[in-house]
Amino acid sequence: MAKRLGFIVNPIAGMGGTVGLKGTDGEEALRRALELGATPVAPLRARRFLEELVKYRQALILVTPKRQMGEELVRELGFEVELLSVEIGERTTAEHTKKAAKELVVRGVELLVFCGGDGTARDVLDAIDMKIPVLGIPAGVKMHSAVFATNPRTAANVVVKYLWGELGLMEAEVMDVDEEAFRENRLSAKLYGYMLIPHEPELMQSGKEATPLVDSERENQLAIARYVVENMEDDVIYILSAGTTVKAICDVLGEDKTLLGVDLMKNKKIIAPDVNEQQILKAIEGRKAKIIVSPIGRQGFIFGRGNQQISARVIRKVGGPKGVIIIATPSKLKKIRYLRVDTGDEEVDSMFRGYLRVVIDYGRERMVECC
Questions:
Q1: Given phi > 0 = left and psi -120 to 50 = alpha, else beta, which region is 78?
Q2: DSSP string of 153-191?
Q3: 227 lies in which domain range?
Q4: Which pLDDT score is estimated for 17?
Q5: Mean per-residue pLDDT, 4-32
Q6: Cα angle: 200, vertex 206, 208; to 5 degrees
Q7: Is residue 240's pLDDT more than 80?
Q8: Do residues 173 and 298 touch, judged by C-beta distance below 8 A?
Q9: Is the pLDDT of residue 21 over 80?
Q10: I need a surface site. Which of 278, 318, 339, 343 has the fewest CB within 10 A?
Q11: 289 near 259, Cβ under 8 Å?
Q12: Does the pLDDT at position 94 exceed 90?
């Protein structure tokens, strides 16, 4: 008997990332993203997920909303389709996601897979609570929640393992941040609840953990920062990613840095704050550039979560891993199983597989596996 899989795509999820808006919650944010030239992210990632499942399509029925929220991709790739009754217009909203999720419970799907970010996860949580298990395909900007697979390919792997009885279930937290506060350089995160997910710790991401504000951690960050500053090259543009560990570099230099954005530095001075992908590409064209980044606490992502401005195109421009400086305190690394990269470009992601050098203190480095 065919397995019934629920499938919802939030087609606007993640569009604010490369243009530096840090999310697309709300009509105004979407409008601004489109004005800045943002292009859809979620449909591409949903397609990558479905392509991994094509070999199993004879054993699957995909129960999905109409049009761009699932039907178009599912039909294009030849899956058997069962359409939901929710009417979908040109623009989709949170209400469409909620109605679709509620109907999937009634339709008796074995697993609900959604493609989006933390906002989409909240919508699904509001609609179904823990009535059926879920799995997120990461396509948003923030993705602090623990309901997401590490990337679209691993999401498909989790689906197969769960539907054919290899995995049990566990509760996972749904987190989200206030996007308006986020755009104003303030991190205001909140736990909204829990949903049931397949238990596969190797292929699922952890929830984000903030860096602890203790004296020893701060001293370690500043030691790393002094080492990085002393080794900075003249006339090289440094692309500074988000987070407190990278911000410590600017603190040492007496420069202002956006905590949650991406800034550009040259000759130890900030030359452009809170830049987007296009601004980065324009600034580094024909110039030597390097990226400085710290992995997200617990999750281990160095690219693809909260810093989509540093896109695969930017990473290629700096020469791949050789143009990337990774910094992290030992206490942060203790809670990270692997470093991870999820740019949406599999060729770029594969460049980082293996062991990467991480600066962990003044003059001290450690090799950490990236997968």
A1: left
A2: HHHHHHHHHHHTT---EEEEEEEEE-HHHHHTT---EEE
A3: 215-370
A4: 60
A5: 72
A6: 170
A7: yes
A8: no
A9: no
A10: 278
A11: no
A12: yes
Residues 273/258, Cβ–Cβ less than 8 Å: yes
Angle between helices 118-128 and 94-107 (to 10 degrees): 50
In the predicted model, is pLDDT for residue 230 greater than 70?
yes
For residue 225 the two structure tokens come to 């920062």
Residue at 204: amino acid letter? M
Residue 79 lies in a domain: yes
The pLDDT score that the predictor gives to residue 68 is 95
Continuous segment of H or E residues that includes residue 31:
helix 27-35
20 pLDDT higher than 60: no
Residues 6+ apart with CB under 8 A from 15: 24, 30, 33, 34, 38, 39, 40, 41
Tell whether 203 is covered by a domain. Answer: no
Within a domain: 206: no
Amino acid type, 96: H
CA distances, 275 to each of 4, 258, 265, 324 (Å): 43, 10, 11, 18
Q: Which residues, listed in sequence order, are joined to residue 148 by a DSSP beta bridge?
A: 136
Last residue of a domain, one of 129, 164, 198: 198
Task: Tell me the HSE value of 335 on the side-chain side, using a 13 A CA sphere.
Answer: 17
163 within domain boundaries: yes
CA dist 194 and 192 (Å) reads 7
Q: H-type helices in 111-267, by residue range?
A: 118-128, 152-163, 179-183, 215-230, 244-253
Q: What is the mean pLDDT of the chain?
A: 91
pLDDT at 260: 85
pLDDT computed for residue 28 by the predictor? 62
pLDDT of residue 178: 58
